[in-house]
């Protein structure tokens, strides 16, 4: 009878550990902003809630610095990050663009039913084309884009307002100044 208790305790421990792993949040730390230098993929992604046949490409992005967010409605850290991003998007510093990874339009509709999406446009990356080509292996991941649509920095983990104000906003301002020259 005693060995049954050990098996049950082991199984319960494994279930609990897996639960903790799935709900943990990787907040972007001091070293979360990593300099990068590569162009966005040329592949066209369907646009969620767009006109029939509308596509998102690097060329359809605004000709100004922007933030590109890879997220999913099934991703718990992404859901925790969403209110922060919504607040930051209201500031209007730069356009926010979303890429929904392996997500369904119905799920996005349900997600954004409560509040408007903070993204100017949302591309659907069903086949992980953009996420693989940009190296957005974990969600959430964000990229800082210059006016030429090149990636200049990668942000790993959940965005915080403090990180945005301390590290990302100064970078975006320098990119805007660069464009003005």
Structure description:
The strands form 2 sheets. This protein has a 6-stranded mixed sheet with strand order 1-8-7-4-5-6. Strands 2-3 form a two-stranded antiparallel ribbon. The protein has 181 residues and is α/β, with parallel strands linked by helices. The chain is globular, with a radius of gyration of 19 Å. β5 (96-101), α3 and β6 form a beta-alpha-beta unit. It is built from 5 helices and 8 strands; from the N terminus they run αββββαβαβαββα.
List the helices and strands and how they pair.
Blueprint: H1 2-23, E1 33-39, E2 45-46, E3 55-56, E4 66-71, H2 76-91, E5 96-101, H3 105-111, E6 121-125, H4 129-134, E7 141-145, E8 150-156, H5 161-180
Parallel strand pairs: 4-5, 5-6
Antiparallel strand pairs: 1-8, 2-3, 4-7, 7-8
Offer a quick outline of the entry:
About 3% of the residues have low confidence.
Whole-angstrom Rg = 19 Å
Strand content is 15-25%
Euclidean distance between termini CA atoms: 78 Å
Helix content: 25-40%
Computed structural class: alpha/beta
Chain-averaged pLDDT: 87
How many strands in all?
Answer: 8
Strand order of the largest sheet: 1-8-7-4-5-6
Shape: globular
Largest sheet: 6 strands, mixed
SSE string, helices as H and strands as E? HEEEEHEHEHEEH
In DSSP terms (H or I, runs of 4 or more residues), the helix count works out at 5
* Quaternary assembly: single chain
Low-confidence stretches: 20-24
